Structures are given as structure tokens and as C-alpha cells.
Amino acid sequence: MDKGLGAGIGDIISHFQNSSCSDGVQEPCIWASPGGARKIDIGKQIFCNRSLNMKNIVAVGFDMDYTLAQYKPETFESLAYDGTVRKLVYDLGYPEELLEWSFDWKYMVRGLVLDKKRGNILKMDRHKYVKVAYHGFREMSKEEKVEAYGNTLIRDAFDEPDYALIDTLFSLAEAYLFAQLVDFMDNNPGKVSKSTDYVRMYKDVRAAVDLCHRDGTLKQMVAKDPKTYINEDRSIVPMLKMLRESGRSTFLVTNSLWDYTTIVMNFLCGSHTLDGGITCNSDWLLYFDVVITGSAKPGFFHEDNRANLFQVEPESGMLLNTDNGTPMPQVGDISPGLLLKEKNGTCRIFQGGSVGHLHKLLSIESSSQVLYVGDHIYGDILRSKKVLGWRTMLVVPELEREVELLWELRDLRKVSFRSFHHTSSMFYDNLRMLKSSIRSDSQYIATLIGRLQYRFT
Ligand SMILES: Nc1nc2c(ncn2[C@@H]2O[C@H](COP(=O)(O)O)[C@@H](O)[C@H]2O)c(=O)[nH]1
Ligand SMILES: [Mg+2]
């Protein structure tokens, strides 16, 4: 754990290290601390770009998908890819040969931008200059890039509706399929209907991906066999226990609905059977004070959000405060019964609502007392941080390998830095000598000219 997190976290960590679980068995130390404990791999450490005093944090919240649940892209994204291709062929009339296509899950990365009109995939720098551009899978030349993106007087915003941002790991398959379709359309003009252009193709891919998320194509498969699609993470439960034992509230706010949430959370926090299966029960709820499913982030964080908050009955998944599906009138306030932590401390489960509801449920006085951990820069972080003032933590699994590489190559970098330093000092020394010799030469010439002038006058 990075020391930059401030004194508060150290207290919690030592507390956790000394603690034993309810059955009296000493649990393994998961966290490093100033006092020693286990060394944490560099790729698993926490880094901060602003100090955070954990003493001020009273509630810690988590997003679920791609935050607590790290999907395996090789299986999960392939599932999304295959499902999307099938929908394009069987529902939207695309040629059957698409079914033969395959997906390279390592090809696309987050941070890319799709140019829907031109069929291009762009990598930009932080100033929105297009550094690398591909048309389908063909790299564009410098001239093509300048012509498309470098000649406008007004800088392009590279935003919706003409562009799509690949800002979540869920979008990798979608970007790959778009590039494949662009190549396919360019090379087989007769095979795609005349009315279909790149923009139409993007819309079709988006709609098909969206449907895969909604109609059970993905979720049913994950539910049947979570370990094929989600990485096991044995540090989640100790982390949640540690936070709760430190006196903080914990909560989950996910866009997934209850039926799926409980399966994924059971897999991550629950007990596993001998054959590797999972036992589905409500034990994981012990680690949370409040769970909000179907939260519709980022709208959840809007202050003027009037979404109804429904209580979920965990056994049946039914929404309680509805009248045959029609929301019961809410007068803006949550009923006092829900506000009080139930006597036995059980978790309260909801669907929908808004951040105002959550603050009331957890008795949050100031939004700066909340730390929220998520994977989606727009859905989880931007609004909750900028508008609400929540403290935030972004989970970026891609950085793990990058940080490891930086660490592995640190000696090499030191050597190259030293050699660069040596070469550059030599260069500057030579430059200085050259400059001074030019200066003395020119002085010599000037003196010579002066003398000559004197002689001839
Ligand atoms: N209808 C769509 N749902 C999508 C899409 N991409 C992802 N998702 C679903 O959102 C939640 C994310 O949950 P969270 O825990 O990260 O808040 C998950 O259920 C995904 O299946 C999409 O394009 N359309
Ligand atoms: Mg997420």
C-alpha cells in the first residue's frame, strides 16, 4: 500500500493485522503497513495524485463490474464479441461470413476514439492531437492524418455524436468489430447494403452490444460459470472486513441489477464448493451497509435526479415499495425505518434512486467524507468527484503491467539516463567550446579588421 494515503490508513491497517475473525482464527495479513507485514507487488500497489487523509473518510463505496469483479477479457470480451456478431447476422441482416470472424482481445485498448463517419480509430494525446490513426486495421499515413484531422481552423472536440470514446473495458469488442466491418465494407462493396455507411455500421454494432448486455446473452453465461469469466480475488473480503472493523460504512453502487449482482458478489465474497462451484446465499451482504443496484450511473450522481428508490427483497429479487409495478408515491424522503441501521445490522438493498438517497441512508454529512472506487472515468469518477466532491479512486488494471515494466526496467533506465546525461554534458561542453572559439575568432577578426582599417585610413 502506498504511503501517500496518509496516516489514517496505517491505523486501519495495523488494526486489521492484529484482528482475528469472528471464529477466533487469525487471518492472513493482506496489506503491507509502515510496521512491516507482507510486501505488496509493485503492480498491486495504490498510487495517488492527491493526498487523502483516511481519517476524514466515513464511508467507502465500490462499483462492481470491472472494479470488484475483474472480468477475464479473453473469455468475457470474446463472449460479448460472439454475441454481437450473431445479432448482427441474425437480427440485422449482415452477411453470414461474419460468423467466421475471430476476435483478438489484446488488440484494442481503452482511451481510443472511434471516428464514426470516416471509419477511423484514433489515438490522441492529452491536447487532442491525433498521434496515430487507423482506417479499419490500416495505419494511415501522416498526410492522410493531417488532411483528416490537422487542417481545421476550429479544433475538433472529438466527442459524440460523430465520435465514440472507448472508455470502458466493456467496449473493446465493439471497437474491434467496428474496425473489422470498416475493412469488410471497403473490400466488399457489394456485400453490405447500399444504405449502410460507417455511421450506420457503428450504430448497428452499438445496438447489438447493448442488447447483449440487456437480454441475458452475457449475464446468463457468466451466471452459469462465473470462474470462467471473472478473476477470483481473495483479498476482497479481508479488505471489506478491514474497512468495516475500522468503523467505516461500506456500500456498493452498481448499474447491474440485483439478480446478477448477487451472483457476482457471491462468487467474489462467498464460499466455494469443493467442485469449484459457488454457494449462492446472502452472506456477502454482511460486508455492506447499503447496496444500490440498477443505479443508472452517471445519472445517479446528478443533483436534480428524481429517480425513485425501490427496496429489493433479496430472496425473490422483488421490488417492495411498488404497487403492482407502479412506484408507490415517494414524498422525496426515505421512510425513517430505512434510515436507521436495522438492529441486527443487516444490509439494506435497493434499486435506482440517487446520491441524495444514499447520503441519507448512510447519514453522510459532507460528501468529502465518501471515498468511491470505480473503473469508469465518466460513469463512476468524473461527476461524483467534480460536482459532488466525493473522494475517488480509479481502478486501472492496464497499469499493473506498465508499473511492473517500469519497475523491472528501472536499472536500465538509470543506466540510459546516466549515459544520456554523460552524452548531453559532453555535447554542451563541446558547444560551449565552439561558441567561445567562434567568439574569440570573431574578436580576432574584428581586431584584424580594426588594424587594417587603421592602416588604410
Ligand atoms: N445496456 C448496457 N449495459 C451495459 C453496457 N456496457 C456495460 N453494461 C452493463 O453495465 C453494468 C456496469 O455495472 P457497474 O458495476 O460497472 O456499474 C453491467 O451490468 C454491464 O453489463 C452497454 O453497452 N449496454
Ligand atoms: Mg464498473
Q: Give a quick account of the main beta sheet: strands, pairing sense, barrel closure.
A: 8 strands, mixed
Beta content comes to 5-15%
Strand order of the largest sheet: 12-11-15-10-9-3-16-17
**Helix/strand structural class:** alpha/beta
Output mean pLDDT: 84
Helical amount: 40-55%
Name the poorly predicted regions.
1-26
> Which compounds are bound in this model?
the ligand Nc1nc2c(ncn2[C@@H]2O[C@H](COP(=O)(O)O)[C@@H](O)[C@H]2O)c(=O)[nH]1, magnesium ion
Shape: globular
- Could you give the count of β-strands? 17
Query: What radius of gyration results from the CA coordinates?
Result: 29 Å
Discrete helix count: 14
End-to-end separation:
82 Å
Protein name: Cytosolic IMP-GMP specific 5-nucleotidase
Organism: Citrus sinensis (Sweet orange)
Give a brief outline of the structure:
With about 450 residues, the chain is α/β, with parallel strands linked by helices. It has helices at about 5-20, 75-90, 140-150, 170-185, 200-215, 220-225, 225-230, 235-245, 260-270, 335-340, 355-360, 375-390, 400-410, 410-455, and strands spanning about 30-35, 35, 60, 115, 120-125, 130-135, 140, 165, 250-255, 290-295, 310-315, 320, 320-325, 325, 350, 370-375, 390-395.
